[in-house]
Amino acid sequence: METTRRDFLAGAITVAGAPIAAGASKAGEAGQNGEHAHAHDHDHQDVPSDVALRVMALESLLVEKGLVDKSALDALVDTYEHKIGPRNGARVVARAWNDTSYKQRLLSNADHAIAELGYSGMQGEHMVVVENTPSVHNIVVCTLCSCYPWPVLGLPPVWYKSPPYRSRTVIDPRGVLREFGVVLPEHVEVRVWDSTAEIRYLVLPERPPDTAHLNEQELALLVTRDAMVGVARDLPSRQGDRA
Amino acid sequence: MNGIHDMGGMHGMGPVVAEKNEPVFHAIWESRLFAMRRGAGAWGKWNIDASRYAVERVPPTEHLQASYYARQYIAFAKLMVERGLVAADEMATGHPALGQPKLTPPLTVDKVAAMVSKGSPTNREFKIAPRHREGQAVRTREIHPATHTRLPRYARGRTGTIIRDHGVFVFPDTNCQFLGEKPQHLYSVRFAARELWGEQAEPRDSVYLDLWDDYLDPV
């Protein structure tokens, strides 16, 4: 059985240089195909997508050559699937709402302030935090690729990496915000942050009204990923409510 | 390069569609590719700018048709061969060349946490005088390098104001081609939306970009 699978995968990689069809990659992205190619060796009904096969074949090759260590790859995947995500950023925001001196440190030296809560590293080596106010709204984009502050938000969602978001946010930020349900009054100034270097941006949303009685953990539950990217603005005062 | 990746200000890409309760990865192969790129990157055979440049060199039709991770795969496979970690024959057959000793991977499981929490800072501790200062008006250069650059087309030849000096950073335009880090000051530069997009933009709005000394001239 192992031989059969190996031959199958080796066959797939012989076309490594050929274009990957849009249909195949879409199917892979939708998660319908490709999942079983890695998980099992038994025969199954799914027809794995072309790119899924090639990636799995490439991993076999890199492991065989000793270029990568399989368990290190497992640990990396586990880290970004389960340990690093927008709850980190929510803790940073809640601390800033609750502690004025922390907020000052966060706005003047974000790297150190974020590291105080234990977050740092890959794709967040150099952080800047920008603050929303009643008269200012901040929104973050990367028009050239898909730069995003991993240590505080995790990996970016597909829409953030998509051509519509990357093309339109700099030229029509208010139009993009409307599609996310945010209608900004004319008097509010929009600041778009295009991540063209290795500086990563996190939006500090405004604290919702009527939350003076909440502690930091409760406050963190109100903070959403979208608000920290700047595609949401008003956060709810109670968890589960829509703002 | 004036490539398809430089999307700021383009029309016709459609609405932004957000998926509810989106998973971190949509298929196992995406997660394996994500991890492999970091694992292979630990050999130090390329840098982040070279890696971005590889994605930019994916032909435009493929670039637009492929999903994010499919695009990353094309670029990664190419980079591995270009930088000599995998031979073209090995990539084609899926098998290691005969007679090659098995290597020892630099990224082992015990090193993952440190790699993630440390990252790869691109600031440099050199004492280099800034060519511009905070509050100063600057004009971006009208340049069109055929290779990797981080000055997007929509912001070339435009006037803005330096609002913050981030310090000294590696310069992507040379680093991407392994021509040296050419460290220099990096600034946050504010452009009025109307300077970039004309009268259609709201008068109060602005766009901030992070730009290096070599992209800027004093006004």
- The count of helical stretches of chain A stands at 14
CATH class category name of the largest domain in chain B: Mainly Alpha
Please tally the β strands of chain A and state the result.
Answer: 4
Return the average pLDDT of chain A rounded to an integer: 86
**Average pLDDT for all residues of chain B:** 97
Apparent shape of chain A: globular
- Identify the quaternary structure here: heterodimer
Topology order of chain B in helix (H) and strand (E) letters: HHHHHHEEHEHEE
**How are the strands of the biggest sheet of chain B laid out side by side?**
4-3-2-1-5
CA gyration radius of chain B, whole angstroms:
20 Å
Distance between the termini of chain B: 25 Å
Total beta-strand segments of chain B? 5
Which two chains form the greatest contact, residue counts included?
A-B, 101 and 104 residues
Topology, please?
The complex is a heterodimer of chains A (243) and B (219).
Chain A: H1 2-13, H2 22-29, H3 35-39, H4 50-65, H5 70-83, H6 86-98, H7 100-108, H8 110-116, E1 126-131, E2 136-141, H9 150-153, H10 158-161, H11 163-168, H12 173-179, E3 189-194, E4 199-204, H13 216-220, H14 225-229
Parallel strand pairs in A: 1-4, 2-3
Helix pairs in contact in A: 1-4, 6-7, 7-8
Chain B: H1 28-41, H2 48-56, H3 60-65, H4 68-82, H5 88-93, H6 112-118, E1 137-140, E2 159-169, H7 172-175, E3 184-192, H8 193-197, E4 206-212, E5 216-218
Antiparallel strand pairs in B: 1-2, 1-5, 2-3, 3-4
Helix pairs in contact in B: 1-4, 2-4
